[in-house]
Amino acid sequence: MATRARPPLVLLLCLCLASCLSSAIGGVSATGNGYRTTAFLVDEEGRRLRAELAAVAGAGGGSTAAYGDDVQRLDVYASLETDSRLHVRIADADGPRWEVPQDVIPRPSPEFFLQTSRPGRPVLSTATSDLTFAIHTSPFRFTVTRRSTGDVLFDTTPNLVFKDRYLELTSSLPPPGRASLYGLGEQTKRTFRLQRNDTFTLWNSDIAAGNVDLNLYGSHPFYMDVRSGGGGGAAPELGPDVRRLSLTARQV
Hints:
The chain is mostly beta strands. 3% of the residues lie in helices and 41% in strands. It has a single domain, classed as Immunoglobulin-like.
């Protein structure tokens, strides 16, 4: 009997920052205190969720020396756009920032979430979707799990860092041998598979493609995570800022 192929997960992250910022996606950092979740709103169909976050106060009263203070309040919007595509948007709750325009990539507005939501559980899942999105409250993190296999496809442990000049978001990886990562261009690499303990700079540069392991003409903040059983997912990240991505043995 033929088995039903598992659809790939597409996780679309929208990280709303000012256009002059720099960001990093990498390992554990001491540059932020993290966030706690203060409220949830979920629509009746269980396909859209809005969460309100507040910065955790540290020994410095919520301030961290590196890269300035944490943004104090964030909004997280998550929606199951299809049974195999999840969209997550993280934004400053107290003011607009530049985002990829709606006419380039149409997506639900924050007002849409407010009009169709009510208090509920911090989980998105439907009977037809193989994906479960869950928010963990204190400290804030979110996970994306494939229900049919139990695989955790995205896990933002440890703390989210969100500042005016710096952003840090991580995703845990399974042990070596259980996942292969591809993407994060544009670079000339020795292998298609991304190597762990490597760093990738996404900043367009007029450098000939014959140069290995250097950022080239284009920036493509997208990676594919192929698991040993044939499943997996993919994660594009939308934002206007420079990106530096670090792939370690445990995190991207």
